[in-house]
Amino acid sequence: MDLPPDDHIFAPMTADSARIKYEWRNTSRRIIVSNLSMTRHNLILLVLLYAAAFRLVAMNRPFQYDDEATGCFYGVLARNYLRFGPAQTHGIPVLTVGHAPDASIAYYPDHPPLVPLLIAPIYLLFGVGEWQTRLPTSIATVAAVYVLYRLLRRHATQRVALIAATLFAAMPINLYFGGLPEVVGMPLVLFVLISVSAYLALHERPNARHCLRLIGTFTLAAVSDWPAFIMVPVFLTHFLTTRLRRQWPWILAFGAAACAVFTLLYIYIALATHAPWSWMVPLFKGRSALGIKAPFTARQWLATAMAFNRHLHTLPILVASGLWLATSGIHVHPQRGGTVARILVAWGILHVLIGRQGVFNHEWWWSPLTPGLAVTAALLIDSILTAAERRSFANAVNAVAMLLMVAFTAWTSVTSFRQLFPTRRPIAFTTMDLGEAIRAAAPQPSDLALLVWSGFDPQLWFYGDRPLRANVWSIDDFQHRLRDETADLMFGYVQPWNAKATGIVFPVIYRRELKDLHAYLQRQYPLAPVPTSLAEEFDIFDLRHPLTGTP
Q1: Class of residue 408 by CB neighbours under 10 A (exposed 0-12, middle 13-18, buried 19+)
Q2: What CA–CA distance (Å, rounded) separates 52 from 143?
Q3: Could you tell me the CA-to-CA distances from 531 to 285, 343, 437, 524, 545 in Å, in that order?
Q4: Are 502 and 487 in contact (CB under 8 A)?
């Protein structure tokens, strides 16, 4: 057998062979990086699929008596857009249910109109219902996950983007409230994230195109709700402290445009609703608890804030976010993505401080803080992974991180699902049953029903779809409310309504407790026809045909 000479086997590497070896290594690295990029691309699709699947599962959930179900309030406002039309609403949300005799409709100008306006065309196409009400917000939630991913892939790294998107999608606040139709909710967060992306483009390359893009995207956030305007001083402060003075006119132009948007919204709402020019002052005081006596102590507020955040953002996310902020959040840090994190955290914290009454009362008001927590936690995880890679522990640490992410997602998904679909004790009737009984007591759309029930929850008007006078607990209450010249509206609002009630809904569970009222109604009024499914749940008395000469 012929063998090559020994000097050929151990000969030094030639220039050509060295070049081939170098090219082979580079090609291998490119293939590995390409495969890793494709893997992460597939993973973000998996995250989006997970977020969409959870929303689909929860989308058609009935509006019962819980925090998430209060979103049907915006369903009523959306239905009123279709019922009253633009000539009467002028684009302002309307609280009135039915057509008031000789009375103007009651407006709800507290918030910009985007959320009910997004729901209205869904109702027009598919009718009124639970999934139709939640559809726009559910889409916004999934879209926000993707926008956050794109934002961080551009301004951080793909790994940070993937981790942050996963944490954001899996946090209980987004799983539980991700379908909630609410102004301080996902549509607002989505458009703020898009605005941050537009702002960073302007920050990198100040020009007219990027400035107009920022103004346009911010306007969408502005018509979602007022907390969007908190971003204006955040953007201004960051730009003025990090850009050359000759570039300042671009951000000042944006600031002027944002002020113009606020002014136009404010003036239009005042003119359309005939409100005083100071209409926002009591609203601001009520949400911020500034200028009035706060209904809570500092200790109560902190305890509630901690309880809400442990429930909605989870303790691991809060700890990870706090560690990153303590080590890297204040000082300029070379880690990519730090600018996005600081901007989002600044927006969330300012929102909490300004709206301290709102965040004390409503869990979902913490939503503006969620993107910042997701990004800062992701940056901490990424820094740990980067440090491990320098010590040749990359495979083990990445595997552990992946397992922890899967465990976190499984944990939050199960707990949020159980909260959305709890094992309920048998109840006397559902909100849908009560709504059907209300329509039986008031057969025509503008008929008014009395209600032996505590009213103000929007579920009564969403399912009942009739004018109401609730809280009838005694004979005196009944006699007063029968001739009352007002109608109850959602959340304690009232409006003039000079008409007698056509019927009263009396839940069977109160027959013994309110026996005097029930006996009085039996003596004075006949029972109205009741659907078979409601016969064992409600007595409905027809007030239009008294049995005696009494009213």
Answers
A1: middle
A2: 9
A3: 47, 56, 8, 22, 19
A4: no
Confidence at 391, pLDDT banded by 50, 70, 90? confident
Tokens for 282, please give them. 């009591």
Residue 1 has pLDDT above 50, yes or no: no
What is residue 3's predicted lDDT score, i.e. its pLDDT? 47
Reading the block at residue 426, the tokens are 């048998």
Residue 383 corresponds to which tokens in the numbers above? 């820094």
Domain boundaries, the chain: 109-420, 431-542
Among candidate residues 103, 104, 97, 108, the one with its CA nearest the CA of residue 467: 97
Q: What is the pLDDT of residue 416?
A: 96
Residue 268 has pLDDT above 50, yes or no: yes
Answer for the pair 201, 313: CB distance below 8 angstroms, yes or no: no
Instruction: Tell me how long the chain is.
Output: 551
Paired with 507 in beta bridges are: 538
Residues near 486 by beta carbon (within 8 Å), at least 6 away in sequence:
469, 494, 495, 496, 497
Q: Among residues 264, 312, 498, which one has the least CA distance to residue 419? A: 312
Q: List the end-to-end C-alpha distance of the chain, in Å, as a whole number.
A: 122
Conformation bin of residue 98: beta by default, left when phi > 0, alpha when psi is -120 to 50: left
pLDDT per position as a tens digit, 95-128? 999 887 777 899 999 999 999 999 999 999 999 9
Is residue 505 helix, strand or coil? strand
| Cα–Cα distance, 390 to 392 (Å, whole number) | 6
Q: What tokens appear for 283 in the block? A: 């609203």
Rounded average pLDDT over 418-423: 91
Lookup result for tokens 């993107």: 371
